[in-house]
Amino acid sequence: MVHKIIQAVAGAGKTYHITNDLDSMKRYLFLTYTNGNVENIRKGLIDSKQTLEKCSVSTFSKFLIDWCLKPFISKMVPSGISRYKGEFTTALPPKVFINKKYNPKYFKQDNYRHYLDKYNRMYLSRMSTLVKINLKENKEFKDLVLRQLKTFVDIIIVDEYQDLTGPEFDILVNLMKLTKKNIHFVLVGDFLQSGVSQSTQKSTSKLSSLHNIEDLRGLLKTIFGKTIELDTVTLKASWRVTPDVSRFIRKKFDIDFNTNLESPNAKKRNTLKIIQDPAQLNNDLLTNTKILYYPSSTLKAINIENYQIVNWSYSKGDTYKQTIVVLTDNLKDICNDDWSASILGDKIRNQLYVALTRSSGNVYIVPKKIWNIYHNIS
C-alpha cells in the first residue's frame, strides 16, 4: 500500500479537505499537533456531516499514550518499565553532566529509571523515545500495536506532520512502514512551515532545511523509497493570500505559490504595501491591524497597549483581515529585485513565510528602521 503526503500551501483549505474528502465505509484516525487543531478538525467533521462514530481525533502525544504506551506497558522494554502506573511528570529528567561532571543520578536509555522518576511517574519529555525504541527493537510490542491499529482503523490522517521532530517523527516513519500492508497513511502539511511551531522535542525538523518541492521529493525517497506518493496539486493554491502577496512570495521564496482563483480574495488588488516613509504610518492603521513582529518581546520599549502584537511564529494557523509585518534588520533589503529568501537561515525563512501568509487582505511591510523612526526609538 502506497502512503500519501499532500503539500498544502498556507491557506489552501487543509482542514476542510481532510474533513470532507472521506470514504463513508472507512474508519479514520486523525492525528495532529495541538489541542487547537484537534478542535478545528472535530468542528470540520461536524460541519461536513460525517459519520462521527467512524472518526477519532487526537493529538500525536495522546495517541502515543492511548494506543502505544498504556495498553502495552507490560510488554515494553527495558525491564522494570512496567512499574509505570499511568502518571506523567513535566519535571526535567536528570542530565548526563552537571558543571561538566558526570551526574550519578542519570540513567542510560537501557535502564527504566531513564524514563521514570522515583515515584514511577514517566518523564513526559522521554515518552516518545521509549515508544520509538520499542517500535524499533521490540517485536512483540510492534505486533501488538499493529494488531490494535488494524482492528480499529483503516486510514490515518496526520495533520501538520511537519511539526513532528526527533523521536516523534521517527515513530511516524516507523508506523508508516509497519502498517504499509494494512493501513493507509495520509500526511498533510507545508514543509515551509516546519520548525516554526513544533513538537516538544528539541530536535530540528528534518524538513526545516528544505527549499523546494524537489528537496522534499528527495527526502521522501530516501526515507520511504517507492512506498510514498507526493501530491503537489490538490492543495497547491491559497484561499487566504491575495494575488499581490502570492506574487511576492513566489518571487522571494522561489516556490510555486498562487491564489486560488475561486477565492473571493483573488479579486483584491494593490494589497501589498511597502512602507518607505514613517509618514505612511498612523495610529488608526497601527491600532486596527494585526502587527507581526519578531521577536515580539523587543516591543516592550514602546507603549503598545492599543496594539495587537503577535510573534511571527505564534501567528501560524491564524487568519487576519490585514497585517503589518515589521522586518528584522537583516531583512532590510527584502524589496530589492535581487533579494532572495535563500540567504536566510532555515528558521527565520520559514517564520517570515508564515508571517507573510496570514492576511486575507492588505499586508504592510515595514522595515525596522521606519518602525523605529515612527516610534522615536534610537
Automatic annotation (TrEMBL):
Establish whether keyword Hydrolase is in the entry: yes
Q: Which domain of life is it from?
A: Bacteria
Q: Which Pfam families match?
A: AAA_19
Please tell me whether the keyword Nucleotide-binding is annotated for this protein.
Answer: yes
The UniProt GO MF terms for this protein read: ATP binding; helicase activity; hydrolase activity
Question: Which keywords does the record carry?
Answer: ATP-binding, Helicase, Hydrolase, Nucleotide-binding
UniProt xrefs under Gene3D superfamilies:
1.10.10.160, P-loop containing nucleotide triphosphate hydrolases
The protein here is known as DNA helicase
